[in-house]
Design a protein that fits this description.
Number of helices: 22
Strand content: 5-15%
Strand order of the largest sheet: 5-6-7
Radius of gyration: 25 Å
Helix content: 40-55%
Structural class: mainly alpha
Distance between the termini: 27 Å
Shape: globular
Number of strands: 12
Largest sheet: 3 strands, antiparallel
Oligomer: single chain
């Protein structure tokens, strides 16, 4: 046994040394992209904080114990920092936030329905967080009013209304049934009122009742078997728009709240289903968005067909494989994700050709001039063919290929690939990317048939997957588990260091400049709670192009221009100042593990973020993945 421990220790030391010796990532300034982001090349060595955030999302900061000498030095350091804090700026930001909150409390919709669904849910979360930070009961009362509006509409079985449908139908996708669960838990955490916990339990139980045999969830459900009239699988498993991931999060939370193993009984089956659902050939690994129960892909909307979608990795299977790996330690989950990531990176590298990038840049300019702000990122088509021979934009139930379509492709995938010579719906000969570039360089316009770029390029980040691979590379299962774990309460030493870190953030010149709101893009410019809350889901942005975010992903991280906002920077300054001055205690400052993130699920929020992963924090657990999953 002693020898085994020695071997394991040696291997971890070797892995750490190898990572330490890794070469920095190479950024090609001419084309604006990293040349190699493969698993073998991954490192954060030499990266700035902003570069790390774009590639790997936010950080989990761990503070250790201090010696008496270190503690004395830290206390002296904190005293020096506190003397420099800009209390005038903090007071202004807090006054603006409070004014905005008061206005939003007055503007709370009278009912939970229609477009106001999103408004009311966001208002509850924002008011509850404001109460935790400021301790003002009027914010708690406003949050309760919003929560009660939501609770009032819950069907007896436990689900929430799907607009335009009756009690017979359950909408799993898009948060209609799953998002209120977290609001109910938040209300219960802050008020102790059991009605909110019972509401959350009913929601979990109805979702458990419609879980598929293979462990996942459909897009929707009908109790009497009638069709809803909307696309999406019922007798199958969906990775689209959190169809499976959102209920998965709820089941884990209910296990931690109740200890009842019924909630986790079939979750481990998902690992085998994800493995079977991969229908890539050879080195191609990937997934469609919807499946029948037998793991055969099916279609939903016109851009969701039986092809491999990169956004399924970022939004569906990738997070699930990470969570399953954290719970089981089974390397098969990580190995499958590595293979999917490797194919994605292979396509990205092929698309780093300067001529292709130039073509996409010209198309972006042409589309922007036409009034539609669009851009394409290498490696992010809508989908690729199972054998990896082509990829492109999916619409009208077919893929518009960006590379020439061969006779073999037509024979193999004829029903899935658009051919301009026979398929209607698009003007003229679509051509291919090379042809589009030639036309644009000759003074032409963007091709209408390209529809600009892809859904995947607009709203997806690989940061969560890439972070998992980086932490796995550096420290294996334990290394990744440490990233996802965090205390529920700081020790005195940890609290001291957290206060120092908060003071430094509050004193950072750039942070103060943004919080000062030089362009009037602060909290008072935010129209409603949903507009504020939605920003956090896309917090860490992509690269800049001509001073502007090139995709909707990360637009909220912009602080200037048409899409800029500094509202959360103001919240963060106030929070950091309160923490630094000891007005937020050690228990409140440490909110438990990342758990199964749903606020910024693809890119992580920093462990010190003012909003943070508030869903998991409704029941603080240091290691959310200590779960006895049945072995498959």
């Amino acid at each position: 046994m002693k020898d085994i421990r020695l071997i394991v220790t040696t291997l971890f030391a070797f892995a750490a040394a190898s990572t330490h010796a890794a070469k920095p990532l190479m950024f090609d300034a001419k084309i604006g992209y990293y040349k190699d982001l493969s698993y073998e090349a991954l490192t954060d060595k030499g990266l700035s904080a902003a570069e790390r955030a774009r590639l790997f999302g936010g950080e989990t900061v761990h503070y250790g114990a201090l010696t008496a000498k270190q503690r004395a030095a830290k206390e002296k350091e904190l005293a020096g920092l506190l003397a420099k804090l800009n209390h005038d700026l903090t007071k202004k930001c807090e006054a603006d936030i409070r004014k905005w909150l008061d206005n939003q409390a007055q503007a709370l919709p009278a009912a939970y329905g229609g477009r106001d669904l999103f408004h009311v849910r966001a208002a509850a979360g924002i008011f509850f967080r404001a109460y935790e930070i400021f301790g003002d009961k009027k914010f708690l009362e406003a949050g309760q009013r919003a929560a009660d509006l939501i609770l009032k509409t819950q069907w007896p079985k436990g689900h929430w209304p799907w607009p335009g449908k009756g009690e017979n139908f359950v909408r799993v996708q898009d948060g209609y049934t799953t998002e209120p669960f977290w609001i109910m838990l938040y209300a219960h955490k802050l008020t102790g009122d059991k009605k909110y916990f019972e509401s959350a339990r009913r929601c979990a139980d109805v979702l458990l009742s419609i879980q598929r045999p293979a462990g996942g969830w459909p897009d929707q459900w009908s109790f009497d078997g009638r069709a809803s009239g909307n696309t999406g699988v019922r007798h199958g498993i969906s990775f689209n728009d959190n169809g499976t991931n959102a209920p998965f999060r709820i089941m884990l939370m209910m296990y931690h709240l109740t200890g009842d193993k019924k909630y986790i009984a079939r979750l481990s089956k998902l690992g085998n289903f994800i493995k079977r659902a991969n229908f890539g050939e050879g080195k191609v690994v990937g997934w469609a968005e919807q499946y029948h129960d037998n793991a055969k892909p099916t279609r939903a909307r016109g851009y969701e067909i039986e092809l491999l979608y990169p956004r399924t990795l970022t939004r569906g299977t990738g997070p699930l494989l990470i969570w399953l790996y954290l719970m089981t330690g089974d390397e098969a989950h990580m190995n499958l994700m590595k293979k999917a990531y490797a194919w994605h990176e292979h396509v990205r590298k092929l698309e780093l050709d300067p001529a292709r990038i130039d073509t996409w840049d010209r198309m972006a300019d042409s589309w922007t001039n036409a009034g539609r702000r669009m851009h394409y990122r290498p490696g992010w088509p809508d989908a690729w063919l199972p054998d990896g021979s082509n990829w492109g934009r999916v619409t009208a139930f077919k893929m518009i290929a960006w590379n020439p379509v061969s006779l073999d492709m037509k024979k193999k995938y004829g029903g899935l690939v658009h051919r301009s010579e026979s398929d209607g719906g698009f003007p003229g000969n679509c051509g291919y990317l090379k042809r589009w570039g030639e036309d644009l360089r000759a003074g032409g316009k963007h091709p209408e048939c390209s529809l600009g770029f892809s859904h995947a390029s607009r709203g997806n980040s690989l940061a969560q997957v890439r972070r998992a691979l980086l932490e796995h590379k550096r420290g294996g299962h334990q290394g990744l588990l440490k990233f996802y774990s965090h205390p529920t309460k700081f020790t005195a030493d940890q609290y001291l260091q957290a206060r120092i870190a908060a003071a430094k953030r509050a004193l950072d010149a750039q942070n103060q400049k943004l919080a000062a709101d030089p362009e009037n893009k602060g909290i008072l410019a935010i129209t409603d709670p949903y507009s504020l809350l939605a920003q956090k889901g896309r917090w860490h942005g992509g690269t800049l192009r001509r001073g502007e975010r090139i995709t909707k992903w990360g637009a909220s991280y912009s602080t200037t221009g048409q899409y800029g906002s500094v509202a959360w920077h103001q919240w963060q300054l106030v929070y950091d100042t309160l923490l630094a001055t000891g007005k937020i205690d050690a228990a409140s400052a440490a909110r438990g593990s990342r758990g199964v993130e749903h606020v910024a699920s693809m890119n992580h929020l920093d462990s010190w973020d003012v909003l943070g992963e508030w869903g998991t924090a409704t029941n603080e657990v240091e290691n959310f993945f200590k779960v006895p999953l049945p072995k498959e």
